Amino acid sequence: MDTATAELDPFVHPALFYRGDHEYLQATLPFIRGGLAAGEPVAVAVPERNLRLLRTWLGPLASSVCFLDMTREGRNPGRIIPAVLRAFADPHEGRRVRIVGEPVWPGRSVTEYPACLQHEALVNLAFPGRAVTIMCPYDVEALEPAVVRDAETTHPVLLDGSGLRVSDAYAPERAIRDANRALPDPRRAEVLSFGGGELARAREFAVGHAAQAGLRGERLDDLRLIAGELVANSLDHGGGRGVLRVWTEDGQVVLDVRDAGHITDPLAGRGPVDPRRRRACGLLVTNLLSDLVRVHTGEGGTTVRVYFTV
Q1: What is the pTM of this model?
Q2: DSSP 20-72
């Protein structure tokens, strides 16, 4: 894709619908090589198999590309904008950058997918006016047809074997609303209602039950930090009280915090801030350190749910 497509709006966000390695390489290799030839910084954040494929075919040019395994760096879709896309683009402000980013791959769970949909829609709000091109590959043979249809709502332009076209279904605001789904209640959970002055109690409640479930070491420390941030947010911005729940599910420790607050900024928690800096945004810390984050928010209140693999 030539950067001339960005003459009106410098931000370009195409979805690549591919079938098999040939179509994948046919689109991504010219995109990457074209960026390098133009002197543009290039990053590739895709699953490990496709990383190996691109490294092999790029040959010596691979040393000029920033490669990231999206199954690690983007396991939590809420982490991708601050820790992958902006972490690469922001140091090159004033220059066009190119990124191949594949946040949706076969094997993403039903629980993860709404966060993927939300992420792809929010990319369009995070980069307007920026000289950034982000190509998002979708394996249309392995992904569900509904996932491919959703990609048409979150990407303004589409690329496949027949060429480049404008997406008639593009509607990122609708996709953001669709991803803001009510979260199912757990079958069984440990529950604590908390109020002012009970931050430490709530944090240790979460840590104690997570440790009983097998979470250890640095990951338990991360959960302690997140529990404290979310409870503090409820005390400061969610009506001064809330409900904390902890349970296990499919090999994961899950905790959520419910309160009366309403998150109105769709990009809340996706700014490029170090997660361990003092006074960092609680939602950003949560996105950067969790294996998955799901949020349901509205005028009736907010639930933030986080997952840690044991």
Answers
A1: 0.93
A2: HHHHHHHHHHHHHHHHHHTT--EEEEE-HHHHHHHHHHHGGGGGGSEEEEHHH
Beta bridge partners of 257: 244, 304
Q: How far apart, in Å, are the Cα atoms of 3 and each of 8, 32, 49, 97?
A: 11, 12, 27, 10
74 token code pair: 């983007």
CA dihedral over 72, 84, 139, 175, signed as positive or negative: positive
Q: How far apart are the first and last CA of the chain?
A: 42
Dist. CA 63–CA 44, nearest whole Å:
12
| Closest-CA residue to 118 (of 169, 62, 162, 173) | 173
In three-state secondary structure terms, 75 is coil
Q: Is residue 273 within 8 Å of residue 280, measured between CB atoms?
A: yes
Query: How many angstroms separate the Cα of 12 from the Cα of each of 89, 238, 239?
Result: 13, 37, 40
Query: pLDDT of 298-309, one tens digit each?
Result: 999 999 999 999
- Closest to 113 (Cα-Cα) out of 84, 167, 151, 87: 151
User: Within a 10 A sphere around the Cβ of 218, how many other Cβ atoms?
Assistant: 9
Average pLDDT of span 231-251 = 96
Instruction: Tell me what pLDDT residue 274 has.
Output: 52
Helix (H) or strand (E) run with residue 255 in it:
strand 252-259
